[in-house]
Predict the structure.
Amino acid sequence: MIDGQSNESFRTEILAYGADAIAQAAACVLRGRPVAVPTETVYGLAADARDAAAVARIYAAKGRPDFNPLIVHVADLDAAEKLGVFDLTARRLAATFWPGPLTIVVPRTADCPVSSIATAGLDTIALRVPAHRAMRALLAATGAPLAAPSANASGRISPTRGEHVLVSLDGRIAMVIDDGPTGAGVESTIVRVTDGGIEILRPGPVTAARLHEASGLDVTGRKEAGVVAPGMLASHYAPGKPVRLNATAFGADEFGIGFGGLAGDYQLSAEGDPVAAAARLFDALHAGAASAKAKIAVAAIPAEGLGAAINDRLARAAV
Protein backbone atom coordinates (compact mmCIF):
# COMPACT_ATOMS: atom_id res chain seq x y z
CA MET A 1 0.00 0.00 0.00
CA ILE A 2 1.34 3.43 -0.92
CA ASP A 3 1.80 5.64 2.13
CA GLY A 4 2.74 8.93 0.53
CA GLN A 5 2.88 12.53 1.58
CA SER A 6 0.80 14.97 -0.45
CA ASN A 7 3.93 16.50 -2.03
CA GLU A 8 5.44 13.19 -3.16
CA SER A 9 5.14 11.93 -6.73
CA PHE A 10 3.36 8.57 -7.13
CA ARG A 11 0.33 7.04 -8.77
CA THR A 12 -2.85 7.06 -6.75
CA GLU A 13 -4.26 3.55 -6.35
CA ILE A 14 -7.92 2.84 -7.13
CA LEU A 15 -9.53 -0.11 -5.35
CA ALA A 16 -13.07 -1.36 -5.94
CA TYR A 17 -15.32 -1.14 -2.90
CA GLY A 18 -15.10 -4.17 -0.65
CA ALA A 19 -13.65 -5.39 2.63
CA ASP A 20 -10.06 -5.17 1.40
CA ALA A 21 -10.46 -1.61 0.10
CA ILE A 22 -12.08 -0.48 3.35
CA ALA A 23 -9.34 -2.12 5.43
CA GLN A 24 -6.57 -0.45 3.40
CA ALA A 25 -8.34 2.90 3.47
CA ALA A 26 -8.87 2.69 7.24
CA ALA A 27 -5.19 1.90 7.71
CA CYS A 28 -4.30 5.01 5.68
CA VAL A 29 -6.70 7.21 7.67
CA LEU A 30 -5.35 5.94 10.99
CA ARG A 31 -1.83 6.78 9.77
CA GLY A 32 -2.95 10.32 9.01
CA ARG A 33 -3.27 9.90 5.23
CA PRO A 34 -6.42 11.17 3.47
CA VAL A 35 -8.25 8.80 1.12
CA ALA A 36 -11.01 9.40 -1.42
CA VAL A 37 -14.31 7.66 -0.71
CA PRO A 38 -17.78 7.94 -2.28
CA THR A 39 -20.75 9.38 -0.45
CA GLU A 40 -24.30 9.64 -1.76
CA THR A 41 -23.50 13.19 -2.94
CA VAL A 42 -19.95 13.30 -4.36
CA TYR A 43 -16.63 11.56 -3.64
CA GLY A 44 -15.04 12.95 -0.48
CA LEU A 45 -11.42 13.23 0.67
CA ALA A 46 -11.54 11.76 4.16
CA ALA A 47 -9.19 12.12 7.12
CA ASP A 48 -9.51 11.82 10.89
CA ALA A 49 -11.03 15.16 11.90
CA ARG A 50 -9.30 14.98 15.31
CA ASP A 51 -5.83 14.81 13.73
CA ALA A 52 -4.70 18.32 12.79
CA ALA A 53 -1.81 17.05 10.67
CA ALA A 54 -4.12 14.70 8.75
CA VAL A 55 -6.59 17.52 8.10
CA ALA A 56 -3.71 19.72 6.97
CA ARG A 57 -2.91 17.04 4.37
CA ILE A 58 -6.45 17.43 3.02
CA TYR A 59 -5.84 21.16 2.59
CA ALA A 60 -2.42 20.48 1.05
CA ALA A 61 -3.77 17.92 -1.42
CA LYS A 62 -6.66 20.16 -2.43
CA GLY A 63 -4.77 23.46 -2.31
CA ARG A 64 -7.78 24.63 -0.28
CA PRO A 65 -7.91 28.08 1.40
CA ASP A 66 -7.42 27.67 5.13
CA PHE A 67 -10.45 29.82 5.95
CA ASN A 68 -12.85 27.35 4.34
CA PRO A 69 -14.15 24.87 6.95
CA LEU A 70 -14.78 21.18 6.31
CA ILE A 71 -17.82 18.97 6.87
CA VAL A 72 -17.27 16.33 9.54
CA HIS A 73 -18.97 12.99 8.87
CA VAL A 74 -20.08 10.77 11.74
CA ALA A 75 -21.94 7.47 12.11
CA ASP A 76 -25.12 8.67 13.83
CA LEU A 77 -26.75 11.42 15.89
CA ASP A 78 -25.21 10.14 19.13
CA ALA A 79 -21.75 10.58 17.62
CA ALA A 80 -22.71 14.02 16.29
CA GLU A 81 -23.85 15.19 19.74
CA LYS A 82 -20.38 14.46 21.13
CA LEU A 83 -19.07 17.11 18.75
CA GLY A 84 -21.85 19.69 18.45
CA VAL A 85 -24.70 21.16 20.49
CA PHE A 86 -28.11 20.30 18.98
CA ASP A 87 -31.24 22.17 19.95
CA LEU A 88 -34.71 20.68 19.45
CA THR A 89 -35.00 21.86 15.84
CA ALA A 90 -31.54 20.65 14.83
CA ARG A 91 -32.32 17.30 16.43
CA ARG A 92 -35.61 17.08 14.55
CA LEU A 93 -33.83 17.78 11.25
CA ALA A 94 -31.26 15.12 12.04
CA ALA A 95 -33.97 12.60 12.88
CA THR A 96 -35.76 13.33 9.61
CA PHE A 97 -32.87 13.54 7.13
CA TRP A 98 -30.02 11.47 8.59
CA PRO A 99 -28.48 9.41 7.23
CA GLY A 100 -28.61 11.53 4.11
CA PRO A 101 -27.42 14.63 2.24
CA LEU A 102 -28.08 17.27 4.92
CA THR A 103 -25.27 19.02 6.81
CA ILE A 104 -26.24 20.84 10.01
CA VAL A 105 -24.06 23.64 11.40
CA VAL A 106 -24.20 23.78 15.20
CA PRO A 107 -22.02 25.17 18.01
CA ARG A 108 -19.04 23.02 18.95
CA THR A 109 -19.27 21.25 22.30
CA ALA A 110 -16.96 22.54 25.00
CA ASP A 111 -14.80 19.41 24.77
CA CYS A 112 -15.13 18.82 21.01
CA PRO A 113 -12.07 16.79 19.93
CA VAL A 114 -12.21 17.92 16.31
CA SER A 115 -9.14 19.94 15.37
CA SER A 116 -9.67 23.65 14.91
CA ILE A 117 -8.11 23.47 11.45
CA ALA A 118 -11.08 21.34 10.35
CA THR A 119 -13.52 24.06 11.41
CA ALA A 120 -11.25 26.89 10.21
CA GLY A 121 -11.13 28.28 13.74
CA LEU A 122 -14.90 28.83 13.92
CA ASP A 123 -16.88 28.10 17.10
CA THR A 124 -19.33 26.06 15.02
CA ILE A 125 -19.01 22.68 13.33
CA ALA A 126 -20.68 21.33 10.19
CA LEU A 127 -21.89 17.76 10.79
CA ARG A 128 -23.42 15.11 8.56
CA VAL A 129 -24.39 11.44 8.85
CA PRO A 130 -23.84 9.95 5.38
CA ALA A 131 -25.96 7.19 3.87
CA HIS A 132 -23.47 5.68 1.39
CA ARG A 133 -22.21 2.21 2.26
CA ALA A 134 -18.55 3.03 1.55
CA MET A 135 -18.37 6.09 3.80
CA ARG A 136 -20.35 4.32 6.52
CA ALA A 137 -18.02 1.33 6.32
CA LEU A 138 -14.99 3.61 6.60
CA LEU A 139 -16.49 5.39 9.62
CA ALA A 140 -17.06 2.01 11.29
CA ALA A 141 -13.59 0.72 10.44
CA THR A 142 -11.76 3.80 11.75
CA GLY A 143 -14.02 4.71 14.66
CA ALA A 144 -13.16 8.32 13.87
CA PRO A 145 -15.14 11.39 12.83
CA LEU A 146 -14.05 12.00 9.25
CA ALA A 147 -13.51 15.43 7.77
CA ALA A 148 -14.29 14.99 4.09
CA PRO A 149 -14.60 17.80 1.56
CA SER A 150 -15.06 16.89 -2.10
CA ALA A 151 -12.12 14.89 -3.49
CA ASN A 152 -10.83 17.41 -6.02
CA ALA A 153 -8.34 20.25 -6.10
CA SER A 154 -9.88 23.39 -4.61
CA GLY A 155 -12.03 25.26 -7.08
CA ARG A 156 -12.12 22.37 -9.54
CA ILE A 157 -15.12 20.24 -10.52
CA SER A 158 -16.42 17.95 -7.78
CA PRO A 159 -16.04 14.22 -8.54
CA THR A 160 -19.02 11.92 -8.95
CA ARG A 161 -16.98 8.93 -10.20
CA GLY A 162 -13.74 7.37 -9.00
CA GLU A 163 -11.91 8.38 -12.16
CA HIS A 164 -12.92 12.02 -11.64
CA VAL A 165 -10.80 12.09 -8.49
CA LEU A 166 -7.69 11.37 -10.51
CA VAL A 167 -8.23 14.40 -12.75
CA SER A 168 -6.84 16.75 -10.11
CA LEU A 169 -5.59 14.53 -7.25
CA ASP A 170 -3.66 11.71 -8.96
CA GLY A 171 -0.29 11.49 -7.22
CA ARG A 172 -1.45 13.71 -4.35
CA ILE A 173 -3.36 11.11 -2.30
CA ALA A 174 -2.72 7.45 -1.60
CA MET A 175 -5.93 5.79 -2.75
CA VAL A 176 -9.50 6.00 -4.01
CA ILE A 177 -12.31 3.63 -3.05
CA ASP A 178 -14.31 3.23 -6.26
CA ASP A 179 -17.97 2.31 -5.84
CA GLY A 180 -19.31 3.67 -9.10
CA PRO A 181 -21.17 6.92 -9.74
CA THR A 182 -22.72 8.77 -6.83
CA GLY A 183 -26.48 9.17 -6.53
CA ALA A 184 -27.30 12.78 -5.68
CA GLY A 185 -24.52 14.29 -7.79
CA VAL A 186 -24.31 17.61 -5.91
CA GLU A 187 -22.99 18.26 -2.43
CA SER A 188 -25.21 18.18 0.64
CA THR A 189 -27.55 20.96 1.65
CA ILE A 190 -26.00 22.95 4.52
CA VAL A 191 -28.29 24.58 7.09
CA ARG A 192 -28.19 26.20 10.49
CA VAL A 193 -30.99 26.89 12.91
CA THR A 194 -31.57 30.57 13.75
CA ASP A 195 -33.93 32.36 16.11
CA GLY A 196 -36.27 32.96 13.20
CA GLY A 197 -36.19 29.52 11.61
CA ILE A 198 -33.79 27.65 9.34
CA GLU A 199 -31.16 29.28 7.13
CA ILE A 200 -29.86 27.47 4.04
CA LEU A 201 -26.15 28.24 3.79
CA ARG A 202 -25.68 26.09 0.70
CA PRO A 203 -28.53 24.62 -1.37
CA GLY A 204 -28.47 20.92 -2.16
CA PRO A 205 -30.59 17.78 -2.45
CA VAL A 206 -32.67 18.56 0.65
CA THR A 207 -34.84 21.45 -0.56
CA ALA A 208 -36.36 24.36 1.33
CA ALA A 209 -39.81 22.81 0.95
CA ARG A 210 -38.70 19.57 2.58
CA LEU A 211 -37.01 21.46 5.43
CA HIS A 212 -40.18 23.45 6.06
CA GLU A 213 -42.30 20.31 5.98
CA ALA A 214 -40.05 18.60 8.53
CA SER A 215 -39.78 21.56 10.91
CA GLY A 216 -42.82 23.77 10.39
CA LEU A 217 -40.43 26.75 10.46
CA ASP A 218 -39.64 29.48 7.96
CA VAL A 219 -36.75 28.56 5.69
CA THR A 220 -34.62 31.35 4.22
CA GLY A 221 -31.50 31.71 2.13
CA ARG A 222 -28.14 32.80 3.41
CA LYS A 223 -28.24 36.10 5.31
CA GLU A 224 -24.68 36.61 6.56
CA ALA A 225 -21.72 37.61 4.40
CA GLY A 226 -18.43 35.77 4.69
CA VAL A 227 -17.48 32.13 4.94
CA VAL A 228 -19.40 30.50 7.80
CA ALA A 229 -19.71 26.98 6.39
CA PRO A 230 -18.12 24.74 3.75
CA GLY A 231 -18.70 25.40 0.07
CA MET A 232 -19.37 29.14 0.31
CA LEU A 233 -16.57 30.56 -1.84
CA ALA A 234 -17.93 32.63 -4.72
CA SER A 235 -15.71 30.95 -7.33
CA HIS A 236 -15.75 27.16 -7.23
CA TYR A 237 -16.08 24.09 -9.46
CA ALA A 238 -14.06 25.82 -12.20
CA PRO A 239 -13.49 23.65 -15.29
CA GLY A 240 -10.61 25.83 -16.54
CA LYS A 241 -12.63 27.23 -19.48
CA PRO A 242 -15.16 30.04 -19.88
CA VAL A 243 -18.67 28.86 -18.93
CA ARG A 244 -21.80 30.47 -20.39
CA LEU A 245 -25.09 29.88 -18.60
CA ASN A 246 -28.74 29.93 -19.71
CA ALA A 247 -27.84 29.11 -23.28
CA THR A 248 -30.62 28.80 -25.86
CA ALA A 249 -28.21 27.53 -28.53
CA PHE A 250 -24.59 26.34 -28.62
CA GLY A 251 -21.76 27.84 -30.66
CA ALA A 252 -19.33 25.80 -32.72
CA ASP A 253 -16.53 26.42 -30.21
CA GLU A 254 -18.72 25.56 -27.19
CA PHE A 255 -19.14 22.21 -25.46
CA GLY A 256 -22.90 22.20 -25.06
CA ILE A 257 -24.46 20.83 -21.87
CA GLY A 258 -28.09 20.30 -22.69
CA PHE A 259 -31.26 20.13 -20.62
CA GLY A 260 -34.84 19.46 -21.65
CA GLY A 261 -35.49 20.34 -25.27
CA LEU A 262 -32.01 21.75 -25.90
CA ALA A 263 -29.64 18.91 -26.76
CA GLY A 264 -25.87 19.28 -26.78
CA ASP A 265 -22.64 17.37 -26.50
CA TYR A 266 -23.80 16.13 -23.10
CA GLN A 267 -27.45 15.86 -22.09
CA LEU A 268 -28.22 16.37 -18.40
CA SER A 269 -31.81 15.24 -18.86
CA ALA A 270 -33.84 15.22 -22.06
CA GLU A 271 -36.95 14.92 -19.89
CA GLY A 272 -36.07 18.03 -17.89
CA ASP A 273 -35.68 16.03 -14.67
CA PRO A 274 -33.65 18.05 -12.11
CA VAL A 275 -32.79 14.94 -10.08
CA ALA A 276 -31.19 13.28 -13.11
CA ALA A 277 -29.51 16.57 -14.03
CA ALA A 278 -27.99 16.97 -10.57
CA ALA A 279 -26.58 13.44 -10.67
CA ARG A 280 -24.92 14.14 -14.04
CA LEU A 281 -23.88 17.76 -13.50
CA PHE A 282 -20.26 17.35 -12.48
CA ASP A 283 -19.74 14.50 -14.95
CA ALA A 284 -20.89 16.93 -17.65
CA LEU A 285 -18.47 19.63 -16.48
CA HIS A 286 -15.63 17.10 -16.41
CA ALA A 287 -16.52 16.08 -19.97
CA GLY A 288 -16.55 19.72 -21.05
CA ALA A 289 -13.21 20.39 -19.40
CA ALA A 290 -11.67 17.40 -21.19
CA SER A 291 -13.15 18.25 -24.60
CA ALA A 292 -11.26 19.92 -27.43
CA LYS A 293 -13.70 22.84 -27.48
CA ALA A 294 -12.49 26.10 -25.97
CA LYS A 295 -15.67 27.01 -24.11
CA ILE A 296 -18.58 25.44 -22.25
CA ALA A 297 -22.22 26.50 -22.48
CA VAL A 298 -25.08 25.21 -20.35
CA ALA A 299 -28.78 25.23 -21.15
CA ALA A 300 -31.13 27.09 -18.83
CA ILE A 301 -32.33 25.05 -15.85
CA PRO A 302 -35.37 26.15 -13.82
CA ALA A 303 -34.40 27.31 -10.32
CA GLU A 304 -37.22 25.58 -8.44
CA GLY A 305 -36.44 22.82 -5.95
CA LEU A 306 -33.22 20.97 -6.72
CA GLY A 307 -32.67 23.35 -9.63
CA ALA A 308 -31.55 25.96 -7.08
CA ALA A 309 -28.62 23.75 -6.07
CA ILE A 310 -27.72 23.04 -9.70
CA ASN A 311 -27.76 26.73 -10.60
CA ASP A 312 -25.73 27.57 -7.48
CA ARG A 313 -22.94 25.21 -8.63
CA LEU A 314 -23.10 26.44 -12.21
CA ALA A 315 -22.94 30.10 -11.17
CA ARG A 316 -19.73 29.47 -9.27
CA ALA A 317 -18.28 27.40 -12.11
CA ALA A 318 -18.85 30.38 -14.39
CA VAL A 319 -17.10 32.97 -12.17
